[in-house]
Write a structure and sequence with these properties.
This is NAD(P)/FAD-dependent oxidoreductase. By secondary structure, this protein is of the alpha/beta class. The chain has 15 helices and 16 strands.
């Protein structure tokens, strides 16, 4: 092996770029991590977006996948300043009549509060929660022979179904609404295949690992990962925006935490014609429109469960949520969009001045939509929390264009790095023996556009780095 400036260079310091850099550095290699912004993080950033003293998560906010990640759980991140805080209710789902369903840490408590659907909930979610340690490496990885095939088969038989079909297990509006809110995280119409998978995973994680918020903001996850990486001898350079591979120092392996569109721009000349054609066919999905609020008081939700929850899903019934997601997928803007809301300051006093609060919310919009959805989002919050608007001190909004400007991986506002439907679930970004290899020797993709897709779990970066270790370094 000839002498190079570094053994490996990783471009992009989102959770996947950081995970890739750590995995390589753990093997004693010399690794350089490059970040275009002035701070590391990708989707893990926190800033005073509204008023001084109010700290808002710019992108991701609540982190069940980080808590349940097989890779992150092996790292001593607490020793590097990361503290997770666990709301007493992981997620709540209010209804127009003033009641709410809720995801509690206890499987039995969650089931018992669903009345006639208690047994159905235990039967559907219980095995996934119990099997999560065995399921996680397979679900959060590329398509391959699983170590626990029976557990994965049990999950797959349910997870590959459309969420609306699996909802037939439930009879009550409460269970059906709770289920729909979970499945809608897929950013797909609930009638699409495999939308049940994300719903099952999120419910199971509520019992197996929780839905925590990082004390001090999501930036703390990135800061802890970066601190651990540098403690191993890794090197980070910020303010280094990569537009071409020619900018990079020489290395045996290069891993890019970017989506196919950026990969084509950065490395197009090094890629084969067939691979570039395949990348050009990659599909991006719905975008998001996001609002952050500085609040004088907590959100006055009518249902008490919502006032104890870190996350609140605003969409009322399964039918209403399914209708909104269907309209959005087909290019329309529903009057009542499905809204995902987080209220971190209820559990983390570092987020706002004493006695005051922050809130974070987004809804799905058509890819690249320019429409301002602030009024529609606030109407949905007010619907379930009368008096909410009176508590707003300031707001900050980001549509798809602003999100993409903040993080180029959010193409058209797509925070999943591409559609996560059955056609791109395991073949993202293209159908290849290894989804992390590109057609250029020593060049790898490690972003959420590879399996297992979006979310703060680092597993895309981990698996890409493992592939590079085998291919390039024989480890």
């Amino acid at each position: 092996m000839t002498k190079r400036d570094f053994d490996a260079v990783v471009v992009g310091s989102g959770p996947n770029g950081l995970a890739a850099a750590i995995t390589l550095q753990q093997q004693g290699l010399s690794v350089l991590l490059l970040e275009g912004k002035d701070t590391v993080g990708g989707g893990l950033r926190t800033a005073e977006l509204t008023l001084p003293g109010f700290r808002h998560d710019v992108c991701s906010a609540v982190h069940p996948l980080a808590a349940g990640s097989p890779f992150f759980r092996t790292l001593p991140l607490a020793a590097h300043g990361l503290e997770f805080l666990y709301p007493p209710v992981a997620a709540a789902h209010p209804f127009a009549n003033g009641t709410a369903a809720a995801l509690h840490p206890s499987l039995d408590e969650t089931a018992a509060r669903l009345g006639a659907d208690a047994a159905a909930y235990r039967q559907l979610v219980g095995p996934v929660a119990a099997d999560w340690p065995q399921l996680a490496p397979a679900i959060l990885g590329p398509l391959r022979l699983p170590a626990h095939p029976l557990a994965l088969a049990r999950f797959g038989l349910k997870g590959l179904l459309p969420a609306q079909r699996l909802a037939r297990h439930f009879a009550t509006p409460e269970a059906r609404g709770l289920w729909a809110g979970m499945a809608a995280h897929a950013q797909l119409p609930l009638g699409h295949m495999a939308t049940s998978a994300i719903g099952l995973v999120l419910l199971a994680l509520g019992h197996a690992g929780g839905w925590p918020v990082p004390k001090g903001g999501s930036q703390q996850i990135a800061a802890a990962l970066a601190s651990y990486f540098t403690s191993l001898g890794g090197r980070i350079e910020t303010g280094f925006y990569v537009k071409s591979l020619r900018q990079l120092p020489s290395a045996h392996a290069v891993l890019l935490d970017v989506t196919p569109r950026q990969l084509l721009a950065i490395a197009g000349q090094q890629l084969s014609a067939l691979y570039k054609w395949q990348l050009g066919r990659y599909r991006y999905g719905m975008g998001v429109f996001k609002v952050d609020w500085a609040l004088a008081e907590p959100i006055p939700f009518a249902a008490p469960e919502c006032r104890r929850a870190g996350t609140v899903h605003l969409g009322n019934t399964l039918e209403e949520i399914a209708h909104a997601e269907h309209l959005t997928w087909h290019g329309h803007h529903p009057e009542r969009p499905f809204v995902l809301l987080a209220q971190q300051s209820l559990f983390d006093p570092t987020r706002a001045p004493a006695g005051q609060h922050t809130a974070w919310a987004y809804c799905h919009v058509p890819h690249g939509s320019p429409r301002d959805m602030t009024a529609a989002i606030e109407q949905q919050v007010e619907r379930f929390a009368p008096g909410f608007r009176e508590r707003i001190l300031a707001r900050h909004t980001m549509g798809p264009a602003q999100l993409e400007a903040h993080n180029p991986n959010y193409v058209g506002g797509d925070i999943n790095g591409g559609v996560l439907d059955i056609g791109q679930l395991f073949t993202r970004p293209v159908l290849r023996l290894s989804p992390y290899r590109t057609s250029a020797k020593g060049l790898y993709l490690c972003s959420s556009s590879t399996p297992p897709g979006g979310g703060v779990h680092g597993m895309c970066g981990y698996h890409a780095a493992r592939r590079a270790l085998r291919d390039v370094f024989g480890r």
